[in-house]
């Protein structure tokens, strides 16, 4: 385990970085993390807590310990201070090529009673590759494990390729499970009512489609809540119950969306970006039949994880969104005011940020991205003294 090192992050605003024009380069996890900037100016106090091999997601247990996923398929149980870890056995084999791997991890809202842990991952089957959702019962101790692991949902259809699995998970206050399925770089399935690709899904906690989903009567897959999405890499509820989602656009047009039942968010028929080969995509415009993003970026930020902040340590940011930036190598804040959103700060991190979570004390925790097999640091942000 590396020694702890604390440095300060400059508060200077940094514009997002652009990308090359090859096929979806910012989605390919091809950039290695760079070293964190040394103390530049007062702002955030940043502690390097631990190293992981290409980490993807994390979540906190009620006692302050963390579950951290690695792309290649390992799930770690990490002490609250980050200095100790154990491998959690019981996860399922993953297909980790390209953007695939062991993806998101969350705990059930009643975890203290039922000990259920949910995780998403990409897998290869006879019909192709796709994203699956599984759950197991957490057993603590010297050799922690997930028992009685079951796959409770699989995207449809499984197709060729290694991109745009998505796989983010969020629970609503009424216990329903929301799950994102990316378009798998196939474009048209995002508008196909029978496919779950390019959709936000609403499920019961056992993975079955929830009753009352708005599009089932129109012939959609019964799990679909909203559609017309591309690569959905962040999903979170605010304190008022609004569901916020962020996704990578194509060449330009990264989005933050307020997800509302039954709406069509336009992909691939509308986007504020363009195809990587230079072909135009019609921009979102009033009256086009598609729900426009609340915030969008061009140049892009390549959004990673997403969280809604409580305001415990930074009261001025209570209720705002925080997003990890991949190609932009940044931490991004979006100012929320009810159902309205506007761009806030964008801070340089000098490394690709895959995940952002809030700790029990209100600190902000980040996972640096990395290539499969390379290290990415777990960082803790607090106000500078």
Automatic annotation (TrEMBL):
Keywords of this entry: Signal
Keyword presence, Hydrolase: no
Keyword Signal (UniProt): yes
InterPro entries documented for this protein: 6-blade_b-propeller_TolB-like, Glc/Sorbosone_DH, Quinoprot_gluc/sorb_DH_b-prop
Domain named Glucose/Sorbosone dehydrogenase: residues: 52-374
SUPFAM superfamilies the record matches: Soluble quinoprotein glucose dehydrogenase
The organism's place on the tree of life at top rank: Bacteria
Name of the molecule in the record: PQQ-dependent oxidoreductase, gdhB family
Source organism of this protein record: Cystobacter fuscus (strain ATCC 25194 / DSM 2262 / NBRC 100088 / M29)
A Pfam family matched in the record: GSDH
Secretion signal, residue range per the UniProt entry: 1-22
Stored Gene3D superfamilies: TolB, C-terminal domain
């Amino acid at each position: 385990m590396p020694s702890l090192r604390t440095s300060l992050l400059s508060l200077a605003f940094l514009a997002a970085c652009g990308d090359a024009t090859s096929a979806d380069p910012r989605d390919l996890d091809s950039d290695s993390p760079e070293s964190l900037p040394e103390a530049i100016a007062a702002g955030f106090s940043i502690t390097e807590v631990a190293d992981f091999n290409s980490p993807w997601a994390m979540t906190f247990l009620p006692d302050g310990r963390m579950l951290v996923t690695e792309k290649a398929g390992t799930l770690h149980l990490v002490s609250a201070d980050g200095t100790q870890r154990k491998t959690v056995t019981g996860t399922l084999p993953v297909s980790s090529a390209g953007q695939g791997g062991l993806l998101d991890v969350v705990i059930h809202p009643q975890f203290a009673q039922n000990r259920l842990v949910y995780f998403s991952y990409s897998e290869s089957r006879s019909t192709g590759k796709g994203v699956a959702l599984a759950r197991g019962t957490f057993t603590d101790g010297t050799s922690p494990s997930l028992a009685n692991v079951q796959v409770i949902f699989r995207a449809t259809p499984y197709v060729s390729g290694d991109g745009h699995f998505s796989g983010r998970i969020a629970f609503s206050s009424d216990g329903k499970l929301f799950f994102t399925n990316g378009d798998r770089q196939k474009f048209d399935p995002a508008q196909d009512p029978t496919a779950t690709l390019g959709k936000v899904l609403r499920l019961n906690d056992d993975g079955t489609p929830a009753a009352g989903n708005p599009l089932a009567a129109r012939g959609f897959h019964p799990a679909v809540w909203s559609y017309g999405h591309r690569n959905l890499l962040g999903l979170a509820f605010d304190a008022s119950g609004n569901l916020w989602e962020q996704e990578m656009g194509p060449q330009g047009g990264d989005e933050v969306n307020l997800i509302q039942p039954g709406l069509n968010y336009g992909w691939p028929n509308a986007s504020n970006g363009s195809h990587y080969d230079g072909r135009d995509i019609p921009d979102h415009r009033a009256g086009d039949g598609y729900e426009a993003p609340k915030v969008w970026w061009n140049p892009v930020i390549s959004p990673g994880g997403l969280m809604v902040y409580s305001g415990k340590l930074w009261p001025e940011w209570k209720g705002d969104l925080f997003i990890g930036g991949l190609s932009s190598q940044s931490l991004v804040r979006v100012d929320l005011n009810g159902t309205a959103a506007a761009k806030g700060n964008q801070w340089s991190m000098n490394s690709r940020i895959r995940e952002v979570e809030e700790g029990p004390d209100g600190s902000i925790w980040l996972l640096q991205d990395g290539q499969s097999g390379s290290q990415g640091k777990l960082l803790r942000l607090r106000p500078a003294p």
